[in-house]
Design a protein that fits this description.
111 residues; mainly alpha; 4 helices; 0% strand
Length: 111
């Protein structure tokens, strides 16, 4: 696997993983929540868990393409966390704004 393919694959996986907590209404993608829906703190815990999972995938891809892992400072991880937050923005907007607008619009059409 070439480095360019590994980077592209990692970006696609990170984009999907960052949005999953806001696109899924199931807790840990398995358990259906109570009638009120999934609390926001659970979405954040899932998001952080997926951040670390994507980090492990990235380490595996780095080891596979380069044969070793480079040591990273705290700045690297802060930048990665910020990039993961930017990747999560479409799912966050869909969950907190767009979904409600679409539901209201469909109810108005049915009336």
């Amino acid at each position: 696997m070439s480095t360019a393919v590994a980077i592209t694959l990692l970006m696609v996986v990170a984009l999907i993983a960052a949005n999953l907590p806001w696109l899924s209404d199931r807790i840990a993608f398995v358990v259906s929540p109570a009638a009120r829906g999934k609390p926001e703190w659970i979405r954040l815990v899932e998001w952080l868990t997926l951040f670390f999972l994507v980090g492990l995938i990235a380490a595996g891809l780095e080891y596979r393409t380069q044969g070793q892992l480079q040591m990273q400072g705290w700045e690297f991880w802060v930048i990665n966390l910020a990039l993961f937050a930017v990747f999560a923005l479409p799912g966050f907007i869909y969950c907190h704004d767009l979904r409600r607008r679409l539901q209201r619009h469909s109810r108005r059409r049915e009336s």
